[in-house]
Task: structure prediction
Amino acid sequence: METITTSPVKLTESAINEIKRLLNEEGFDQSKKLRIGVKGGGCSGMTYVLGFDDATAQDEVYESGGISYVMNPSHQLYLFGMEVDWQGGLNSRGFTFSNPNASKTCGCGTSFSV
Result:
């Protein structure tokens, strides 16, 4: 798999730091790749996918801020220009998604429609 330099998704510095922390956790399976994508479901129609997974033959490899990730190229339509951030505060903790393609999002912030 060859890395494609134009990343459809931007990772903030905070997200990059958290992903690096996860990658360096003891016992982390180094064969897994960071996957960013979408899947059907959720209260608004589609749900974001952010996790570690095996790469598939149809995946393309991208890089944002020194972090490489895999994505099914058909998901670019829904995710192009999206920003992934990490919030580490007491009130909100976790990854957040800011997607300019979403016409509607749910209250939980992980589901959207286009």
Residues 3-100 form a domain with the Hypothetical Protein Aq_1857; Chain: A; fold (CATH 2.60.300.12). The mean pLDDT is 84. The beta strands are 3-4, 9-11, 33-40, 46-53, 60-64, 67-71, 82-88, 93-98, 104-105, 111-113.
